[in-house]
Amino acid sequence: MTVNAVVAESQSESPVLPDSEIRKILTERIDGRRQSVGIVVGVVEPQGRRVIAHGHLDHGDPRPLNGETVFEIGSVTKVFTALLLADMAQRGEVALIDPVAKYLPKELSVPERNGRSITLEDLATHTSGLPRMPSNFAPKDPNNPYADYSVEQLYQFLSHYELTRDIGVQFEYSNLGGGLLGHALSRRIGVDYETLVQTRVAGPLGMSSTGITLSPELQNRLAVGHSATSEAVPNWDLPALAGAGALRSTAHDLQTFVEAALGFTESPLARAFQAMLNVRRPSSVPYSEIALGWMIDKDGADVVWHGGGTGGYRSFVGFVPKKRVGVVALSNTATSVSVHDIGRHLLDPRLPLAPPQERKEIAIDPKLFDGYVGRYQWGPNINLTVTREDNRLFVQPTGEPKLEIFAESEKDYFLKVVDAQITFQTDGSGQATGLILHHNGRDTPATRIDERS
Description:
Layout: H1 3-12, H2 19-32, E1 38-45, E2 48-55, E3 70-72, H3 77-91, E4 112-113, E5 116-117, H4 120-124, H5 151-160, H6 175-189, H7 193-205, H8 216-220, H9 242-245, E6 248-250, H10 251-262, H11 270-278, E7 281-282, E8 288-290, E9 295-297, E10 303-309, E11 314-320, E12 325-331, H12 340-347, E13 374-379, E14 382-389, E15 392-397, E16 403-407, E17 412-415, E18 420-426, E19 432-439, E20 442-448
Antiparallel strand pairs: 1-2, 1-12, 3-6, 4-5, 7-8, 8-9, 9-10, 10-11, 11-12, 13-14, 13-20, 14-15, 15-16, 16-17, 17-18, 18-19, 19-20
Helix pairs in contact: 3-6, 3-7, 3-11
């Protein structure tokens, strides 16, 4: 029997699609839909691991992607932060029910409500009552939005913020909470977040290509990040909120991480990985829960997963304990549908791949854009900023990358990288007074908050 025949037979026994079928998905995403410059998928299963890749590190770069290519992994970092919490709890260094204030400066006032303090577990399960982003988050450079947000600003926000709901009762995804958790754990041990990850997770697991600061050798393997319009963009820096999304890694390293989570390898973190899944709270999505750091789809296969994204990258890490399989998917382009649906579909085929966009773009007078440019209040701490660049219109949520929107009519626009649309509401002069975001079956209004010209 040939090597290829052995591989084919092995893959036929796997609940995850064979390499040839995965490659078809990647080829269609990159060469067909133009939704990424390059994607790497890693599969973990009892019979071993495999990597399927398509595309390149950058436009014009002949080097192909592989399992050693470095990507920003964005919010997948939060799983590492939650693992650190679980491990420190196993060691007796912290307790899940400890107030986060215990590990912050004594003079700092941390929000409380009805006599209840925000605990470490609340932060790891996104039930702290803290918003997605702090209200004093105002980046000078939208292409690197977290770079100038400082610990002093974080403390200032915490000192003045009043919680709007009880702690521990409602899920609200929070980059602020993830960053605060990483900061508190780092203070507890007395090292910076990157050192904590290296000494407690990456080092023990042998993940030599995972970190924040890249050596020249790792920098050479870094895939260039691209915006949703396929333009090269800068890398992100998160000095104060590192625990929310600062890590870079590779498919091979993340496969090692998943193997440890599934118990394929002996690890000093085995008890911590299990402890992460022992904590369960309801999420905001039907048939799903939030564990320590992990999202869990409860509708059938119990997919344990987390996704991430920065200005130029998208990432997915997930596994199914009952099937003992895992999937890693990494893209060097910031599109919302580029890898999250791929990863979940490979773990549970009943979860569909995102359909191709079928909306039709029309040409309109770009002078209309001037009436739409401005800031719109979409949530308590989230603005949508609409900008114009020549004859192109863009929208950018607070703390997220800028995305181009395309006209279906003079007031109706759509995104090509995610199934979402925007309708501008205007006055008699054509100036926008607000907008409505159509996404996930919801129509959410946003009021214009800047001075109109």
